[in-house]
Structure formats: structure tokens, C-alpha cells
Amino acid sequence: MTFRIAQISDTHLSAEKPFFVANFERIGEALRADRPDLVLNSGDISLSGESKEIDLSAGRALHDAIGLPVRYLPGNHDIGDSQNLAAHGVPVITDERRIRYLAHFGADFWTLDVPGWRLLAINAQLLGSDLAAAADQEDAIVEATASLGARKLALFLHMPLFDRAVDEPAMNWRFVDPAPRRALLERLRRMPPALIASGHIHQYRERWSDGVCHVWAPSTGYVIPDRLQPLYGSKQVGYVEHRLEPDGRHDSRLVQVPGMPTLNIADFPEAYGPI
Length: 275
Ligand SMILES: [Fe+2]
Ligand SMILES: [Fe+2]
Fold this sequence. Notes:
Blueprint: E1 3-8, H1 21-34, E2 38-41, H2 53-64, E3 70-72, H3 76-79, H4 95-105, E4 110-114, E5 117-121, H5 132-146, E6 152-156, H6 178-187, E7 195-198, E8 205-209, E9 212-216, E10 222-223, E11 239-244, E12 250-255, E13 263-264, H7 269-272
The structure holds fe (ii) ion (FE2) (2 copies).
């Protein structure tokens, strides 16, 4: 039987600053009608959960209200950015932030077996970090691939691995840095994922690279203006449906929910400050 995942992403939820809650609730209604087998939020669940725990609890309550099975992955706004970005003055991942996230959303890296497939979800902010949990996650990745058997592997993480080329050298806040990217792919070398799905960019894109399908889920809430972020795919809100077949075939598509406006972060200076 086909396993259907509704990947929502970058919901940026907050009760104090509920700018993106109405869009989320529209998606929730659409999901309740569609009844996917799993809803997966690929991070930036909360607006500012890395510094305001109240945003984490608000995000969790809104997901519980959907009434469907939901699994989560942390984004930089939930748990802090990658450690290499500390020099830029942004909050970065710490044990304290991570433990707070775990209390609200459960494991930050996990696997789930469904017919013909293993879902492997990882914490992108742990990649390249010196937290003890980073080594635990590496062990979990090795174990998940070693025991894969005949299953196909679908990898989920908040940040895309790269834009166009696996060996591109650029270091920025949009993609996994080259060194941890290489380390991750080395661990996956014997059993490369058939599908790698991410969020973070607030754009939808599907692109194949070396036989692997890379799918970027858009935000459910807002896009980022062109003067701050190039166009990589398409700037529109929505979610992604992944259909995983027991025989290993798979298909992903963008789903747009009628009546859901594509908001622009530039119109919400109270969210993260003026753009
Ligand atoms: Fe985001
Ligand atoms: Fe993000």
C-alpha cells in the first residue's frame, strides 16, 4: 500500500506573534480532509523557539490540534543554528536548547519503517557540531543504513545539502557546510538515499543529482523577498506530498491549499525585525 507523507515545513509558529498561524490552520484543515499516513514537519516549527520556549509549546499545541500522526525535525529557529554561525551573532545549538526542544517534540533524529522504505530523519544543526549528541546521531545514521536490507532510504533534514553540486564549496546559512556534508554522504555511501527532503529555504524545488531526488518543501507561512534570497525553485507557500510505494517507486508533488495567501516576511517586521 502506498505510504503518503505530508511534509510541512517552516511553519514559524508563535502565540505571541501569530502572523503565520492562519496559514498553518488552513493547511491543518486540508490535511484533516486528505488524511495522509504521516505529517512530518521538517523544522522551523516555531518562530523563535531557540530563545522563547513559549513558541515551542505554542507550535506543539497547534500540531496536536490537527489530530493526525505528526513527527518533527528541528530547524535553526527551534534549536539554534549550526555552531559555525556563532561568529555571526545568531543563537547556535547548545545542549540546553536541544534538551528543551526534545521535551516538546521528542527525538531530534529517528527512523520509521514503512512498506518498502525506511525514513531517516536527522537534526541538521547537529552536523559538524561538537555536542556529544552529534556522535550519537552519526552512530544512528550508520546503524540505520547497516540494517536497511532491501528497503529504500528516504532522508529528511531541515537544511538542503547543497544547491546544484555535491562538491560546491560555498559556506553560508542556506545549505549544509561542505565538511559535514562530505562526512554525512560518506556515512551514506554504501546505501545512498533515493530521496532527500528538506525545508529551510522557503522555496519548493525538485531536482535530481547523481540519481538522488532532492525535494525542498516550501514554508506553510511565508517567502523571502528576492533582494535577500535568489530564486532557486518557486516562491509560494504550501506543502509537499511524498508517495512511497512498497516496490521502491516514489513521487513528490507540491500541494497548494486554496485560499492560503503566500505571505512575504518583509511585510512582518515584528517577526524578526525590519528586513
Ligand atoms: Fe524557516
Ligand atoms: Fe531554517
